[in-house]
Amino acid sequence: MNALPIARLQFATTTSFHFLFVLLTLGLVTLVAVMQTRWTVGGKPELLRMTRFWGRLYVINYALGIVTGIVMEFQFGLTWTGLSAFAGDVFGAPLAIETLVAFFLESTFLGLWIFGFGRMDKWLHLTLIWLVTLTAYASALFIMLANSFLQNPVGSHVENGTLRLDDFGALFANPALVASLPHVAGAAIVTGGFFVVGVSAWHFLKRTTEVEFFRRSMRVGVVAALLGSVFVVNQGFAQFGELKMYQPDKLGESAVGAPLGAMIGLGFLMFACAILGTVLLVRNRITRARFLHYLMVAAIPLPFLAAIMGWLVRELGRQPWLVWGKLRTADAIADVPAGQILFSFIAFTLLFAALAVADWVLMARVAKRGPDPVDEPAELPVLSGV
Questions:
Q1: Of 138, 245, 307, 363, which is the most exposed, with the fewest CB atoms less than 10 Å away?
Q2: How many distinct structural domains can be found in the chain?
Q3: What transmembrane ranges does the database entry give (predicted)?
C-alpha cells in the first residue's frame, strides 16, 4: 500500500473541511460588524436584533471550526515531517504568528464581544466586533502567506539541506499572495452574503411574520453577494496573470482542468444570482419574488462548492512539488506505515463529518427559529434554545 496518495487525500480532506468553516466565519463576521455599525449609528432596534441573530449563527460556526483547524495543524508534525525539517524555519513562521497573535487576539476580542452584549458602552462594543473582524482577516493573511510560500518560495535560500529565510518582507510581496488573498476575502464575503440571503429567503417561503427583519437582512446579503462576486471574478482572473510568473504551466495541466471549469462556471452563476437579487431589490420586489426565494435557498451551497474547486486548482497544479521547485511531495511524507495513515484518515474524516453535521444541525435549528422577540434583552445568549 502506497502511503503518499493516502496522506495527500487525508490532508486535502482536512483542509477542505476547515476552509468551508473559515469562509463562512469570515463572511458572517463582516456582515455582523456592518449590521452592528448601522445600529450603533442609527439606533434602529431591528438592526440590533439582526446583529444578535446573525451573530449567534456566526459564533456557532466559529466554535466548531476551531476543532478542524487544530486537527489540521497536527498533520504537519504527524504526516509531513519532511516539510517541517526542510522548510519549517520559513513556513512555520507565519503559522506561528497566526496562532500566537491573530487567533488568540481574535478569540479574546470575540469573548469580550459575546459577554459584553448589553453590558458595555455601545461604541466600545462596536469596536470589539471590528477588532474580531480585523484579526480574523489577519489570520487569513498569515495562512495564505504560508501557502503562497509553498507555491512560490521567495525570500529564502537552501543552506545545509534546509531553507533559510532571507527577507521576511518578501513573503508579503509574493506574487502568489498578491492576487490570491483578495480572492479569498471576496469568496468569504460571497459565502456570507449567500448564506444570509438564503436563510432570509427560506423564512419568506415559510410566510414569516418578520417581514421587515428579513427584508433588511436580505438587502445586506444581496449587496454583499454582489460586491463579493465582482471581487471574486476579478481577482480570479488576476491570478491567471500572476501564475505566469511562478507556475507558467499550471493551468495547462489536465489535473486542474475539471475543477477549473467548475470553479469558473460556479463563479459566473453566483454573479448572475447576485445581479438578479440586486435588480429585484432596486425594484422593491425582493420580498415578493418567490422564484428568487427558491433560487437563493438552493444557491446556499454554491460558494462552498466554488471554493473547494478553487482550492483544488491551486493545490493540484503544484504537484509533484510540495515546495515549488525545492521539495517534492514524495520526499516530505513521514516514515509512517500506510496502514496507520489510512486509519488516521478514516478517523479524521469521520470526525469532520460529525462536526459538519453538528454545525449544520445547530445552525439550521437557530436559523429556522428566527430572531428573538422585540422585547428580549440585549444579551447574546449564543446557544440558548439550541
A1: 245
A2: 1
A3: 17-36, 57-78, 90-116, 128-150, 184-205, 217-238, 258-282, 294-313, 341-362
